[in-house]
Amino acid sequence: MANLGRMLRQLRGERIRAQKELDRLDEAIAVFERLVGANPRAQARVRPAGKQKVPAATRRKMSKAQKARWAKLRQEGRAKA
To answer: 64, 19, 51, 74: which is closest to 11 by C-alpha?
Structure first.
C-alpha cells in the first residue's frame, strides 16, 4: 500500500508540473496572438511554404547557368556524332 501512496503523490506532482507547463504555453500563445492582432496585415504577407519569390537577378543567374549546361550537352552530343 505504501508504494501506491508514493505513486499517487508522484502522479499528482507530475500533473502539477504539466499544468504549469501548459500555463506557460498558454501565455506564449497569448503573446503571439496579441502581436498578430496588433498588425493583421502581417498574416497576409506570410507566403505559404514553397511559394517564396526568387529575385530577378537570381532568376537571370539560374537561367544563364542552365543555358550553359544545355550548350555543354549539345557540344558533347556533336562530339560523339
So the answer is: 19
**3-class secondary-structure state, position 48:** coil
Query: Average pLDDT, stretch 1-12?
Result: 89
Question: Is residue 47 a contact partner of residue 53, using CB atoms and an 8 Å limit?
Answer: yes
Rounded Cα–Cα distance for residues 55 and 58 (Å): 5
pLDDT in tens, 34-60: 888 766 565 556 666 667 788 999 999
CA dihedral (43, 48, 51, 57) in degrees, to 10, reads: 30
Task: Look at residue 57 and give its three-state secondary structure.
Answer: helix
| Residue count (the chain) | 81
Q: Give the model's pLDDT for residue 81.
A: 64
